[in-house]
Design goal:
Elements lengths: L11 H9 L1 H30 L1 H5 L2 H30 L18 H5 L10 H19 L1 H17 L1
InterPro entries: TLCD
Protein name: TRAM, LAG1 and CLN8 (TLC) lipid-sensing domain containing protein, putative isoform 4
Keywords: Membrane, Transmembrane, Transmembrane helix
């Protein structure tokens, strides 16, 4: 069995204190996210240049948009994989793993990768209100179209 290198005894308390603190997790998460964002953005441009002929013909503005979409896709995959891991593989959400309520449970992965400290307590209520608000916004946005549709339907009914 290979021994893993360890920190010198003088640094061990500092490393343990830093690694367990939420400030260090936040700093590590932000630093890693910035570096990963830049790397994935550059890698998307590099791969696209060789894999897609149309990429070379795009203007710089369109290339920036394309690379942003590449990073957005990468971010969605990482967030989905982390969520699936927390939900199905880890014991964070098992009933017997903790006496805490499920909405109050956190882990280093949920704090670092997903940035979730606690589940939003009004999440259920937002599921009820957001669709209704979106429906009202759509009615306001498409009011002229709806008005024309009502007028057309009423004319069609009266002409019969």
């Amino acid at each position: 069995m290979v021994d893993l290198p360890s920190f010198p005894p003088a640094f061990t308390p500092i490393v343990l204190r830093l690694s367990s603190s939420k400030e260090f997790q936040w700093l590590a998460s932000c630093s890693f996210s910035i570096i990963t964002c830049k790397l994935v953005y550059k890698i998307t441009g590099f791969i696209s240049h060789f894999c897609f002929k149309g990429y070379r013909k795009l203007s710089n503005e369109k290339k920036v948009e394309w690379n942003n979409r590449g990073f957005s896709t990468f971010h969605a995959l990482i967030a989905a994989l982390a969520s699936l891991y927390l939900l199905f593989v880890s014991d964070l959400f098992h009933e017997d793993s903790s006496d805490e309520l499920i909405v109050n449970r956190t882990s280093i992965i949920s704090n670092t990768i997903l940035g979730v400290k606690k589940i939003f307590p009004l999440g259920f209520y937002s599921l009820l209100t957001v669709p209704a608000m979106l429906a009202l916004m759509n009615v306001a946005w498409f009011w002229k179209i709806i008005k024309g549709l009502i007028k057309t339907v009423s004319k069609a009914r009266h002409s019969e």
